[in-house]
Amino acid sequence: MAQFNPDVGDAVKFLPQDATGEVKEQRWSCRTALVSILMGCVFGIALEKSGVYRPEIILDQFIFTKWTMFKTFMTAVATSVFVQAFLSTIGVWKPAFRATRSEFVCGDCSCGNVRGVASTVVGSTILGIGMAFGGSCPGTVFAQLGAGMWEAWMTILGGLLAAICYGWFAPKLNAFIYWLPIKYSTVDSLLGVRYWMVAIPLFLVVGGIVALIESQRYWLVDTPNPTNKDVSFLREDYWPPEVGGAMIGLLQLPAITFVVATLGSSSSFMVLVTAFLRCFCRVEVQDKAGFKPFAGATWWWQVVYLIGAVGGSCLSATTAGHYGEVKALAWWQHFIGGILIITGSRLAGGCTSGHGISGVSQLVTNSMIAVPFIFGGGIATAFFVKAVCPHLWWGHFN
């Protein structure tokens, strides 16, 4: 059983079996739906304006020729850490912060440190491979769809197929999923200190890295086209990736305050396939351990959030005048990529948003393990395909 420090331990009272339903059901209401869709709109705008959703930007990051994705991601992490460090010290926000953190660690859907080391490492590597193979992750694919890249539907279809397979066979994978459990669920538990004592130094280090990279490589160098300087801010082609990353990180504030959750994307695929199997295939999902956690209304906020991301990305691309101009890979690359990113996310217990932004900012040990392997899988795959068959990937962007 994972060890908890005082910042997390007090929140475990939100999670006993007889109280879990009460806490989770508070997530779904008209207010939750409204907040979720507005959050999604901001998320979609941030992804589109930073350019990080573009397949070529993702692939070029993995071979270190463009740094947009890294700057956006690291800024989102730094901002998320700052927001949660703030919430952890303010009395009115402490219960919500502790509840979301506790559930990430031991909840059956967020699947933070419920996962063992082996499943986290393998799943994160597969997720990274899928990102490089298909040029997207579980969150950016919805921004691609909103910006008029219709091949994104193939990524989504591949992801839904993977979600069905994972849900069906998850019970058979339990021995592997829970293999090599981690004793200390969070870094601050391991060190025996309060959350903010680690969070603030992490914020300074990550923010400093972003500032250093930006000082050495100006953001406009990595944009596909120069930003229009004679138009309003919303109509500009691109914004600095640090702006997009900060917008994403700040979304943790409404997520924790109103939804009692942290940012994530991959669980939405499980929610959708669970609803499909129950409504159209008459599958008793309550009897299927892989689908049961997603059968209620708890996680529908994430689906609404990603629908909002489609709308936000569409608005951003349309106002800038480049809707439908995103260059895609071949349909089969997006389809296979979709299978890989959701398979990897489910095995790892989180995606680039869940583990990368939320988990790292919450100092979850599994997330700290996951992120290097996500990037490692993507980097290895990108360099491999660049060496063996570059025309099948980068040839689409010429």
Sum this structure up briefly.
This protein is mostly helical and 398 residues long. It is built from 19 helices and no strands. Helix 5 runs parallel beside helix 13, helix 7 runs antiparallel to helix 17 and helix 7 runs parallel beside helix 19.
> Could you report the average pLDDT, rounded to the nearest whole number?
87
**Major sheet details:** none
Give the ordered list of helices and strands.
HHHHHHHHHHHHHHHHHHH
**Count the helices. How many?**
19
Low-confidence stretches at least 5 residues in length (pLDDT < 50)?
1-26, 108-113
Beta fraction of the residues? Answer: under 5%
Q: Specify the overall morphology.
A: globular
List the helices and strands and how they pair.
Blueprint: H1 6-9, H2 17-25, H3 30-50, H4 55-62, H5 68-87, H6 94-106, H7 117-134, H8 140-146, H9 152-169, H10 174-177, H11 187-191, H12 195-216, H13 241-250, H14 252-259, H15 267-280, H16 300-320, H17 331-348, H18 352-361, H19 365-388
Helix pairs in contact: 3-8, 3-13, 3-14, 3-16, 4-7, 4-19, 5-12, 5-13, 5-18, 7-17, 7-19, 8-9, 8-16, 9-15, 9-17, 15-16, 18-19
Can you walk me through this structure?
The protein has 398 residues and is an all-alpha fold. It is 64% helix and 0% strand. It has helices spanning 6-9, 17-25, 30-50, 55-62, 68-87, 94-106, 117-134, 140-146, 152-169, 174-177, 187-191, 195-216, 241-250, 252-259, 267-280, 300-320, 331-348, 352-361, 365-388. The longest helix is centred in the C-terminal third of the chain and has 24 residues, at 365-388. The chain is globular. Residues 1-26 and 108-113 have low confidence and may be disordered.
